[in-house]
Design goal:
The complex is a heterodimer. Chain A is an alpha+beta fold. In chain A, 24% of the residues lie in helices and 14% in strands. Chain A is built from six helices and five strands, in the order ααβαββαββαα. Chain A starts with 7 loop residues before the first helix and ends in a 7-residue tail after the last helix. Chain B has two domains: 8-108, Roll (Ubiquitin-like (UB roll)); 126-298, Alpha-Beta Plaits (2-Layer Sandwich), CATH 3.30.70. Classes of the chains: A alpha+beta, B alpha+beta.
Chain lengths: 172, 389
Amino acid sequence: MERKPMTLAEKLYLPAIFKGMGITFSHLFKKKPTVSYPEEKRPFSDVFRGLHILNRDEEGRERCTACGLCAVACPAEAITMEAAERQPGEEHLFREEKYAAKYEINMLRCIFCGLCEEACPKDAIYLTKTFAPANYGRKGFIYKKDDLLIPNPLTDPEGYEKAKGTIGTGIK
Amino acid sequence: MAEEKKLLKVTIDNITVEVEPGTTILMAARKIGGDIVPPTMCYYSKLQNTGGYCRTCLVRVAAGSTADPRPMPKLVASCRTAVMDGMIVENITNPAVLEARKGVVEFLLLNHPLDCPVCDQAGECDLQDLSYEHGAEATRYEFKRRTFERIDIGPYIQLHMTRCILCYRCVHTANQVAGNREHGVLDRGDHAQIATYIQKSLESPMIGNVIDVCPVGALTDRTFRFKNRVWFTKPVDAHRDCPHCKGKVRLWMRGDDVLRVTARKDQFGEVEEWICNECRFEKKQVSDWVIEGPTRLDRHSVINAGHYEKIEKPQEFLTEVMHGHAARILLDIHAVSDVNMVDLNVINGPATNATFNGNPKAVGTNVTDVKEGKGRNVAGTDSTNPNTP
């Protein structure tokens, strides 16, 4: 470090003050980086990993077959499920012979690593570009099938398309 | 004078072992153990006359014997070929053997549906392990796979003929262990199928063993159907005083629920002691069993994902360290969660929607339940596709 005594210009003090104020003043004319959330939202990256969604196929049938690979891949052990057998007459509801009757993700445990998405062999679970919403209680963070399922494309095509839009496309 | 048996020297993948005359190459390799043991899909050392169908255990014999050191012209099935003195065998050291095995796996998977996410055998399936280790990444098969409707053969056993690789193990088990064979392989060639021929059900008291010998998910336990994945259950060795069998079993538990009972399997995936249907299907309470301890499994098995090593439950210590005050729980997960509300071990079939919504005793029924007299053996109908007849 230099330990030389200050020059006269430096000792005068005021030039440095005006230089600094000049920088501050110039920022008045620059573009504001502030995003006024929630009116305005910052675009998410394509690889953003947010809240989970349970996908359906184009006929509105649930894709999840409760194979348990997401649960075994989950490092936070946030996923639990219980499987049931598809009965005759339920073919329009579930894509496979077995389906998840119960499916829960504990969002308090989830670390949004996306390993469940990687593990899924059935294209059934995706991490969307949605934040997990805030809540006053912890009870609201146990997400069940009702909270996770994508809207049915047959009964609610608009909601389905909207939800589908939140699924990231990954690295292109 | 006692006649001394002359031991034969055989070299498998550069490892020499001495075995008794009449030993097959496969059994000699198993005596050595390790990576050089050829995989088997149809051969079962505990059953007579098995082996020779699946061709996964193919090896190359580089020298037939000391007397005649010429190599065998083609790859031979090691489960059916007896060793000779001075025989030199190549298994994993010969790329041609590995290439042939890859082809065999591709053939075995031709008609296999690869519905592992649905199948209860996934995680302990011989075909899954085999294709993972030796198989190609993709199939070149372009035609329609043959499919079948699933059938309940008897009250406890589910037959998914679509997954079958026709290893004949269950046929030999029914003949040699159960004593009363009611099923077999019908038709020939591409149409061959395991069936009971017109709606018979398998009800011999030892017939449950066909589930254990099945290398794929073709014969599965209906009382365990879809209850849990194998790798989330905790394998525990247990025994009971059984009048029909030796009663030495492996329990597959979840918490304190016995979800499934199977025979104990050795390192080659073969049953150690056959168990009876009563032990297997009807004793689903911990109180029925004397628990010996957790099962030690191959460390590569996915079943070890749960790290079940101890049988004792950890003590609840919070009240003690807080001088008698109970811990204030911010969230009691059981108050919110919907899972583990139904005792799945008490129902003897797959759970359905009704099981979880008001009727905890409800069990899935099958349109082809042969017990109900509705069964049919129709080839070419697909149980997973509602559009086919």
